Structure prediction request, 124 residues.
Amino acid sequence: MDVKRIFLVSVLILVLAAGSAFAGCSMDEKVVSDNYAERAGSRLLCGLVNAGLGWTQIFVEPRQSVKYDDQNIVDGIFDGFGGAVYYSVLGVWDLGTFWFPGSGGKDIAAKDCVLETFKRGEKA
Prediction:
């Protein structure tokens, strides 16, 4: 495969993963499942999404901080850069270790998925 095809397949997987996460599938239930396939699959999915979309925190977090957390824009920008690094590193980590989900998968949760930060304002 050439580089363009690999890139297109990666983007397609990322879009499909993001779509299924927004469709309301509960990651919390699957991450702590007794079924190994569900645990490993959830961690792989979350790793793909975090590694691919972690950088979006640079743009999302300033808006979220001002709108929902009553912080100023500078705090939001710093939170955004910190969140981008956090989610990107966590995504790469999950991609490298998804096959060994740990103690029942309880070491990660849906709150560690970057898509959960997009829905922060909906909770109120």
